[in-house]
Each structure stands twice: as structure tokens, then as C-alpha cells.
């Protein structure tokens, strides 16, 4: 079978609308239950009253069962059904039909606003094939607030495979991050995390994300990276790339988010990992002196909660790049360099934030 048929009635629809209204909802909740939805679920009776269906079954001699839980007053829906709906019917006999029309109007408006939000978000949204979506914070904050909420809710639902409606508090926490969040801050939502970077919000599924350990724990991250290649670093949501080039075609100057190394001097395989005890490297600008990585982080005042999340590009000979901070001098190009490797990271490094 390619359809699941549910027996929801017009009474169920009215109860659903009233339930969402009492809980506090927007247009999506007021639209009630759709006649059909993704996954092959259909509700052919949702415009027919419950009593009409029961009368038909009795007149036709068809057996049916009542679910005893439908009478349990512990459930709010049941109290709406047995206490509130009868009052509405006495006050306005056509109240169920009115609520059905109201839901249809809300559904049309809801669909239109979804389309408007999608059109706006199309200029701010970027797909990261290994780690969900990113939203440009600057663009996002120029949108009308109601469409910010709607768009964020839809991005979370799609990118984090979250079929259930998100609460207003969660959506507003994400928008507060977009406006005021420090780099590295995050919100945990069902299905994943929303992480603040310098320019974006990253929506990272749980299986692509790693949370920094407590002090008394030791958790290692290690990922191979090919040449050429790229990966999503789960500690921060950043995306790293490596590309071989002729040195004459390489960028002239290294940047915070890019370095160039001599391909002939570096061995493979290359890995990306996090901090390990005893790590040392020879930072550029220190005349060849070796330095403990922990001391390097301390000098830069990088919080301990962030250090174990920072990616390190490592060759068999040692650390090549503390990503976003400093490269090792041993692989700097020289006048004799012909081929090079260019390493880039999509966003600036973490300097402060929460684990």
C-alpha cells in the first residue's frame, strides 16, 4: 500500500485548532491538519462531522470501536472535546464549519508566507554537502522579523531532518544568536546544533558534530583529508579544503583562513585532528623555535573550552597548520618551490564561545 488512511473528522480538526490556540501558536498551528501530507498520509473524512459518521455506521450496521482513552479527562484534547466544543456548538451551531473555513484560510496564508520566506532565504542560504546549511547572518537580519522566524524554522526542519514543529522560544534563541551571538556559541535543537561563525549560522546535524569534552575526559578526533580534498570539521562546523597548484598560480600572501606550503617538502597522508598531549610546532615568526601548542593557545588567550575544538592539519612530520591561527615554518615555500598545496578554511577561527 502507498497510502495510510486516517479517520480524523471535522470535530478532530476543530479540536486541533482549539488545542493549538490554547497552547499559543502561529498560522501553521491554526491551519490545523491537512487533508494529506508527505509520506502518503490522507484524511478523507476530515470535513465530515463525527456524529454524521457514527450515524452512518449505525444505520449501515457496520461495527466500530471506541478508544476508551478518548474519554480520559487527563488529556487537554479530551477536555476540549467534552467541555469546550459542546459550549461552542450551543453558542454557534455552525462553529465546526466556521473553524474548518478558518483553518483553510490560515493554511493558504501560511503557504504564501512560506513561499515569501523561501524567496528571501534563497539569497542567504548555502548548502554544505557534508554538513547541512549555512545562513548569512547579515542578510538574515535585514528580513522582516516574522519571515526570519519562519525561514529559520524551515531551515532547521529541512537541514536537521526535523519533522516536528519547533517552539517559538527555540526559534527566537537562534535569532538572538544571529544578532548577538559570539563566534563559537551554539544552540542545541532537536536533530542537531546551530553554530555561530563570523559571518554565518551553521546548521549541523548531530552525526556531523562533536562537543568538547569535560576536563576529566579525553576525546580524540581524527579525519583523513585527501589531496585534493575537503571535509567538514565536526568540532566547529568549519569546512577545510586542500588544493594542489603550481606555485606561480598560488595566492601571494597567506591569510588567517588560508596558507600555502611547499608540496615537495610535505609527506602524506595528511590528517585533520584536534589537540593532543605534548603537541609542539614551529610557528612562523619565531625564528625556528619550537613551542608547545598549549603555550601558544595561552599566549593568544584562547579559552580552554575552545582549544580542543580547533582543527590541526598534520603531516607525518608534524603539525602543518593550527587552522585559522598560524602555520608551521618548516613547510613554507621558497624560491625553488614549483608545486604547492593551498589549505583554506571557510570561516575564521574560534576565539571564544561555549563547548
What attributes characterize this protein structure?
19 strands, Uridine Diphospho-n-acetylenolpyruvylglucosamine Reductase, domain 3, alpha+beta, 355 residues, 10 helices, disordered C terminus, Rossmann fold, 5-stranded antiparallel beta sheet
Describe this structure in words.
This protein is α+β, with helices and mostly antiparallel strands and 355 residues long. The protein folds into three domains: 4-117, Rossmann fold; 122-208, 2-Layer Sandwich (Uridine Diphospho-n-acetylenolpyruvylglucosamine Reductase, domain 3), CATH 3.30.465; 222-345, no CATH class. Helix content is 32%, strand content 22%. It contains ten helices and 19 strands. The chain has a five-stranded antiparallel β-sheet with strand order 4-5-8-7-6. Strand 6 (186-189) and strand 7 (192-196) form a beta hairpin. It is elongated and about 95 Å long. The two termini are 47 Å apart. Mean pLDDT is 85; it is low at 212-218 and 350-355.
**Which spans of ≥5 residues are poorly predicted at pLDDT below 50?**
212-218, 350-355
Roughly what is the average pLDDT, rounded to an integer? 85
Percent range for β-strand residues: 15-25%
What's the total count of β strands?
Answer: 19
Query: Compute the gyration radius: what is it?
Result: 28 Å
Task: Determine the structural class based on helices, strands and strand pairing.
Answer: alpha+beta
Spatial order of the strands in the main sheet? 4-5-8-7-6
Span from first to last CA? 47 Å
N to C succession of SSEs: EHHEEHHHEEHHHEEEEEEEEEEHHEEEE
Summed up, the helix count is 10
Helical residue percent band: 25-40%
Amino acid at each position: 500500500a502507498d497510502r495510510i488512511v486516517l479517520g480524523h473528522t471535522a470535530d478532530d480538526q476543530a479540536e486541533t485548532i482549539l488545542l493549538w490556540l490554547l497552547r499559543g501558536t502561529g498560522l501553521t498551528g491554526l491551519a490545523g491538519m491537512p487533508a494529506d501530507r508527505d509520506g502518503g498520509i490522507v484524511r478523507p473524512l476530515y470535513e465530515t462531522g463525527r456524529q454524521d459518521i457514527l450515524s452512518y455506521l449505525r444505520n449501515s450496521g457496520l461495527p466500530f470501536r471506541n478508544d476508551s482513552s478518548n474519554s480520559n479527562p487527563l488529556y487537554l484534547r479530551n477536555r476540549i472535546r467534552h467541555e469546550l466544543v459542546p459550549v461552542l456548538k450551543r453558542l454557534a451551531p455552525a462553529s465546526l464549519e466556521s473553524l474548518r473555513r478558518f483553518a483553510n484560510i490560515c493554511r493558504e496564508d501560511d503557504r504564501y508566507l512560506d513561499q515569501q520566506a523561501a524567496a528571501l532565504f534563497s539569497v542567504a542560504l548555502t548548502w554544505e554537502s557534508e554538513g547541512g546549511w549555512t545562513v548569512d547572518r547579515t542578510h538574515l537580519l535585514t528580513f522582516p522579523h516574522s519571515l526570519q522566524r519562519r525561514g529559520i524554522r524551515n531551515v532547521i526542519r529541512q537541514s536537521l531532518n526535523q519533522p516536528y514543529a519547533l517552539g517559538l522560544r527555540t526559534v527566537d534563541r537562534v535569532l538572538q544568536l544571529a544578532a548577538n551571538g559570539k563566534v563559537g556559541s551554539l544552540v542545541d535543537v532537536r536533530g542537531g546544533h546551530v553554530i555561530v561563525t563570523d559571518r554565518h549560522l551553521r546548521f549541523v546535524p548531530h552525526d556531523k558534530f562533536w562537543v568538547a569534552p569535560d576536563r576529566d575526559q579525553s576525546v580524540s578526533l581524527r579525519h583523513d583529508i585527501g589531496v585534493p580534498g575537503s571535509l567538514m570539521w565536526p568540532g566547529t562546523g568549519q569546512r577545510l579544503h586542500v588544493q594542489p597548484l603550481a606555485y606561480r598560480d598560488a595566492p601571494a600572501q597567506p591569510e588567517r583562513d588560508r596558507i600555502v606550503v611547499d608540496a615537495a617538502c610535505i609527506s602524506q597522508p595528511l590528517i585533520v585532528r584536534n589537540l593532543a598531549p605534548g603537541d609542539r610546532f614551529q610557528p612562523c615568526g619565531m625564528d625556528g623555535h619550537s613551542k608547545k601548542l598549549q603555550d601558544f593557545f595561552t599566549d593568544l588567550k584562547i579559552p580552554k573550552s575552545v582549544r580542543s575544538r580547533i582543527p590541526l592539519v598534520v603531516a607525518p612530520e608534524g603539525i602543518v597548520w593550527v587552522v585559522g591561527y598560524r602555520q608551521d615554518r618548516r613547510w613554507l615555500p621558497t624560491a625553488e618551490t614549483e608545486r604547492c598545496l593551498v589549505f583554506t578554511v571557510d570561516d575564521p577561527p574560534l576565539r571564544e564561545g561555549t563547548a
